[in-house]
Structure formats: structure tokens, C-alpha cells
Amino acid sequence: MPNRNKESFGVNRLKSVGYAFKGLVVLVKTENSIKLQLIIGSIVTIAGIYFNISTTEWLIQLVMIAMVMSVEGVNTAIEYMADFIHPDHHPKIGLIKDIGAGAVLIASIAAIIAAGIIYIPKVFA
To answer: Which of 3, 22, 40, 67 is the most exposed place for a label (fewest CB within 10 A)?
Structure first.
């Protein structure tokens, strides 16, 4: 069977990264929640520098920031897809969107708890 894809594996990977970057730019430009999360991520990054948090704390903080923003990106994709499939209001589409938002809430609560564990002892020390 002939190879129908004439581009190399490396070229295809570069294109995939380009598409992913394009999606990231769209997400940041169009979604207020991501903008807010970028601001919060920047604030806790500055706090991490100020309080000289440990390597482990940096890793936890980075994972939490990435988790919240990633789940928000997936939630946004779900919302766009749901709106594309059924642009009019529909109870099942609303439920799907609510579940996606609930996933973002879970990630956000976990991030807030992690930030509290890291920073409360440092602020009140």
C-alpha cells in the first residue's frame, strides 16, 4: 500500500504544533476566563519568586496552573462544538456545558487548595 502522506513525520509534527499554537492564541484572545487564569497564574508566579518557594512547590504550582488552563481549554472546545452542533438552546447541550464547567471548577478548587497549602504558612510566618 503506497504512503499517501508525502510529508515526513517531522513536518507533520511541526504542523501539529503550529495548529496547537493557533488554538492557544485563539483561546487567549477570545476567552475571558483564560485571561483571568493567566493573571492569577502570573500573580502566584510572582508570589513564588517573592517567597522563594521550593522546587517541589514550584512543580505543584506549575502543574496546578497548567491543569486549570488545560481543562478550561477543553471546556471551551466542548462549548464551541456543542454550539456548532446545536446552536439553539437545548437542555442536553446545557447539561453538557455545565458538566464541562464543573470540571473547570474541580481543577480550580484543587489549585486554590494547593496555593493555600503553599502560601498560607509563608504569609503568616
So the answer is: 3
